[in-house]
Amino acid sequence: MAKVTRVCLIDDDHIFVYGAKRLMREINFAEELSVFQNGQGAMDYFESNSQHTEHLPSIIFLDLNMPVMNGWEFLDAFLNIPGISSREISIYIMSSSVDPRDLERIQAHPYIKNYILKPLTSEDLEGLLKERAQ
Amino acid sequence: MEAITNKFTIRQSPFSVAVLDSNGNILNYSNRFAEAIDEQKDLTGQNYFTIVPHVPHAFKKINKDNFGEELTITEVSRFIPLDGKPQWFEWKLSQWTGNEGQYGGIMIYFDEVTESHRDKELIARAMDVARIGGWEVDLVNNTIYWSKVTKEIHEVPQDYVPDLEKGINFYKEGEDRDMITALVSEAIANGTPWDTELRIITLKGNEVWVHAKGEAELVNGKCVRLLGTFQDIDDRKRMELKNHVVSERLAIATQAANIGIWDLDLVKNKLIWSDEMYAIYGLDKSDFSGTNEAFEAALHPEDRIMVQEEGARLAMEGALEFDTEFRVIWPNGQVRIIRSMGHIERDEDGNTLKMVGANWDVTESRDAEKRLKDLLSITTEQNESLMNFAHIVSHNLRSHSSNLSMLTTFLDTENEKGERERLMKMLLEASESLDETVGHLTEVVQVKAEASDKIKNINLFNVLTAVKKNLSLMLEEEGAVCKIDVDKNINIKAIPAYLDSIFLNLFTNSLKYKSTDRKLELKIKARNLGNKVLVCFQDNGQGIDLERHGNKIFGMYKTFHKHKDAKGIGLFITKNQIEAMQGKIEVESAVNEGTTFHLTFKKP
Fold it and tell me: If pLDDT is split at 50, 70 and 90, which confidence band does B206 have?
């Protein structure tokens, strides 16, 4: 299975980050994984690297509930980076939220590829890779 | 000689008179007679009935045999000459006796009475139309006269012969008859006239309202004659009575409902108020001058311009109806909300002439509406907050439980000792987090469920100083300055534990989010406002970008700072605690300048 070159994980829960990292390593999901504690940290990175295609991830896993800049705020800011929407970046929401307002918003959002309800499993990641191969 | 003198005097008579012999030939006549029939030549010897063709027919048959006892006969005749204009004449005929006492002939006098007759006829016609009848009682001869209309009103035949008792008995038995009896007796005794409206029962049994007027003629203090008029006012009276019933009903209704009626004549600037209006405006009748200015003076100053503008707008639109609300201030300072509805009368150019309307007090219903709206918004807010609460609970519990399940799965297969230790450490952390979350949730649920009967009267200053003392070590460490500028007499209604927790939370928030550039300064002030106490809690810390976070600052698990202790639960609980005590909390902040919380508590 073709693994993903660069993956970005934005989540403030370090236990979850540990688990996600471990799962990805186990199934050899990505060549490179960058982790940000919240939306703001990720934004700082993307803003300075938006012109360097080689530094941009092809998948972003995004949590919704985070301090400083939450997932929705990050999405708004991220899509405002000039030229970013033309890049082939798949955004997956990864959250514990079952709030229908969040789910509706996820469905209606044009740039969100899918929603993964925590806990994350290796099946979720494998399914995602299969999907990308097709 | 005598005859000549006689002849001479008749000639001079100012009346149109002629003396005839027994055959009807003229013996002598006055100059006025010649003028009246427009003849210049001598008329002596001419036949009277030939030259005066319009003489009453009956006169032609008069002779010595049928003259009878009467000395004078009076007749009125109508004559239509060739020009077609009817003329009325009054005739008088009397016989004259010769020197030997024999029947000599007749004298005829006539006078044109067209004008006075026309007046009489008009009066009769008018009385007929107005259904006014006349009547007269001669108390000396005990005779009674009823005119044609009087008889018609009583529905009796024209040949009916009334008497005083019969006349009175036509009045409806009971108060009507008692009244007329008393009035007539009074008139006979003292000459007092009467003018009244009573019911009669006609001969045919119909009840009719009449306007009866009468007066007495007294001679030497004794009543000899009663006379008066009698008018059929049945239609008008019944209408009036009906109207009276309706307006009485309306009066009862407006009085019971406290609806005031007013009438403003803008031309004369005259404002008329019904009694209820004074109660609505809290004014005494004597304190109200009855002008538009007096009305405007009673208005709430903030609404006065609105009312004037509304008036101008109605005038511009040419509106004929209005429906508005405004506040008035009673002399005792009470503010009431008044609804005003009515109608506008305008002239052809659209200028307002008159306004008539109704006012009523809607203060209670507006207050009730407001309470209902407030209640609804609180309920909606609570509902929403419960909903949020449910989602937050589920989110937080899920995130910890999913971490736990993930970690246990790893542990299951992990053999490396170091990694296992790491997992165990994380497992402990996750279960502690879960425990903490459950603790928070319990706290929140308790706030929501806690009954308000634990509310006590608490001295604000004492609470603030106690909390400050608890935190004195931390405040000293930071070198913070804290000024509590609160009147020692201010008491508030609060649940003691909540109050401690609220201020503790505000103090620790200020400590947590202090500016790194300056020493922390806290200022706490309080003041009374009506039945509330406002508390102002100000710091000079980092501040919050309210434009970005304003709507979520009091939300659960919302943190805005990268602070290790930021849990996002404090303000959520604070808000819930304050609301459980029927208070309010609001925030004002500027980034890098500081944050001020405005708290509202109920006064004991």
Answer: very high
B169 three-class SS: helix
The pLDDT score that the predictor gives to residue A60 is: 94
Of B402, B429, B568, which has the smallest distance from its Cβ to A96's Cβ?
B402
Distance, in Å, from the CA atom of B453 to the CA atom of B581, rounded to the nearest integer, reads 10
State whether CATH 3.30.450.20 applies to domain B271-359.
yes
DSSP state of B220: T
Token pair 């290796």: residue: A122
Q: Which helix H or strand E contains A43, and what residues bound it?
A: helix A39-49
Instruction: Compute the 3-state secondary structure of chain A and give helix, strand, coil in percent, each to the nearest 5.
Output: 45, 20, 35
Listed by number, the residues of chain B in 375-394 with a beta carbon closer than 8 Å to a beta carbon of chain A are 391, 394
* Per-domain residue ranges of chain B: 2-118, 130-238, 271-359, 367-449, 452-602
The kind and range of the H/E element at B340 are strand B335-346
**Domain A4-126 class?**
alpha beta
The pTM score is 0.43
**B2-118 and B271-359, same CATH topology:** yes
Chain A hits for B557, CB-CB cut-off 8 Å, are 65
Percent above pLDDT 70 for chain B: 91
Characterise A28 by phi-psi region: left (phi > 0), alpha (psi -120 to 50), beta (else): left
Tell me the HSE value of B339 on the side-chain side, using a 13 A CA sphere: 11
Buried b / exposed e over B404-425, threshold 16 CB at 10 Å, is bebbebbeeebeeeeeeeebee
Distance CA A12, CA A20 (A): 12
What phi and psi values does residue B241 have, to the nearest 5 degrees? -65, -40
**Residue listed under structure tokens 């219903």:** B365
The residues, ordered by sequence, that sit 6+ positions from B48 with a Cβ below 8 Å of its Cβ are B18, B20, B24, B25, B26, B55, B108
CATH code, B130-238: 3.30.450.20
Q: How close is the nearest chain B Cα to the Cα of A23, in Å?
A: 9
Beta strand ranges found along B423-520 (DSSP E): 456-459, 481-485, 491-494
Q: Give the model's pLDDT for residue B4.
A: 46
Residue A103: both structure tokens together = 């789910």
Q: What is the mean pLDDT of chain B?
A: 84
> Given an 8 Å threshold on Cβ–Cβ distance, is B403 in contact with A16?
yes
Distance CA B400, CA B435 (A): 9
pLDDT tens figures, B76-97: 787 777 777 778 888 888 888 7
- d(Cα A42, Cα A47) in Å, to the nearest integer? 9
Minimum mean pLDDT among B145-149, B357-361, B373-377: which range? B373-377
Q: Please, what are the averages of pLDDT over each run of 10 residues along chain A (134 residues)?
A: 82 91 91 90 86 84 86 90 81 86 85 88 88 80
Confirm or reject CATH 3.40.50 for domain B367-449, answering yes or no.
Answer: no
What whole-number distance in Å separates Cα of residue B381 and Cα of residue B123? 84
pLDDT at B213 over 70: yes
Structure-token pair, residue A92 = 């997956």
In terms of CATH architecture, what is B2-118? 2-Layer Sandwich (3.30)
Is B431 in the A-facing interface, judged by CB distances under 8 Å? no
| Digit-coded pLDDT (tens) for B513-541 | 889 889 999 999 999 988 999 999 999 99
3-class secondary-structure state, position A34: strand
Which A residues in the span 14-73 are in contact with B, Cβ-Cβ below 8 Å? 15-16, 18-19, 22, 38, 65, 67-68
Per-residue pLDDT tens for B258-314?
899 999 998 898 999 988 999 999 999 888 888 888 899 999 998 999 988 888 888
Cα dist. A133→A111, A126, A130, B88, B213 in Å? 19, 11, 5, 132, 118
